Amino acid sequence: MSTGSEFSKKVMHLNILMGSILMKRKLLPFAIAAAVAVPGVALADATIYGKLNVSLRNVDTGEDTWELESHASRLGFKGDAELDYGLTAIYQLEYEISPDQEEAGDSKDVFKQRDIFVGLKGGFGTLKVGNMDTPLKKAQGKVDLFSDVVDMNILLDGENRQDNAIRYTSPKFADMFTIDTMIEVGDGAERDTNGDDTDDEVRDGISEGASIAVTAGDSKYKKQPFYAALAYENDMTENKGISIIRAVAGYKINDITLGALYQTSEGELESNKDYDDDGFLLSAAYSMDKLTFKGQFISSDQSVDTKGPIDGEGGEMFTLGVDYKLGKKTKTYVYYGDGENDAKDELTVYGLGLEHKF
């Protein structure tokens, strides 16, 4: 671990490094290699991690389209430092990258921000500030078996990352229960010469939105064979004006893993339209040696346009897939998904992918 006196220097070096990379993106391989090679500078005490996940897929929404698609491939840097009073400083800078194209995600940037935070950890729990997944999103655990490929975000609300966020996660009680909370802090507002707020619509309060989740068990099914969560979120930026309640359950018995999620959403949109939705997800997986067979069904009954490529008033999505482990951190996979909304708009997608973690 780094000492407390070195911690701020490490974070500063990381930020300088990322800024240099963003300005000169063609130097990325050399910048990372140099940072790792030079002792005491930039990444010497940071852990470099990431994932490359790309599939060749066919997408049919009325017209057949073949494409290479990166599924939330990422590059991250994280570390910690021991402090006084039994505290540990923690930091993480994680960015989405797109090995299939020049830009990341839908933007024109080489890097697209994912979870980026700095915080403190101790006997009281963990406190973070930055840009992070909400507790409601994290509450789904691992029940979405096709996350980042044909995931629940295609129909259900709440799979968001929140900026200007303060997040507190409690220690685990009785080796089972955890409380995870987040508030969204305002981003400031323009003011006139008298110091008065010039825009009442700007979110500039101490707590503009909130998200909380209570979890039990182990979402990875290692310490316990079960997982459960109950989460609530209200008025976060990505779902402004909407409240969401989510319940999740998962259970693993031998080689079979079962998962279920139910959520209800309601509120008033900025267009002054009432919003209401009841949705659920059911998933099942069976592992056999290096093979894992997966199936998943998602249903949504939204009263306004749904998110993602299926537009309309509610919809359903059924997905099947098979993973094959090539090594501890590498797998190849195939998948097929078929969906339709109430307006009879259809989505069919199938593909072959490769994922490697490092």
Automatic annotation (TrEMBL):
Limits of the Porin domain: 31-343
GO CC, one annotated term: pore complex
Compartment(s): Cell outer membrane
Lipid bilayer topology: Multi-pass membrane protein
GO molecular function: porin activity
Signal keyword on record: yes
GO biological process: monoatomic ion transmembrane transport
Main location: membrane
Record has Membrane as a keyword: yes
Pfam families: Porin_4 (PF13609)
InterPro entries listed in its UniProt record: Gram-neg_bact_OMP, Gram_neg_porin_domain, Porin_dom_sf, Porin_Gram-ve, Porin_Neis
Subunit structure: Homotrimer.
Protein name per Swiss-Prot or TrEMBL: Porin
Species the sequence originates in: Litoribrevibacter albus
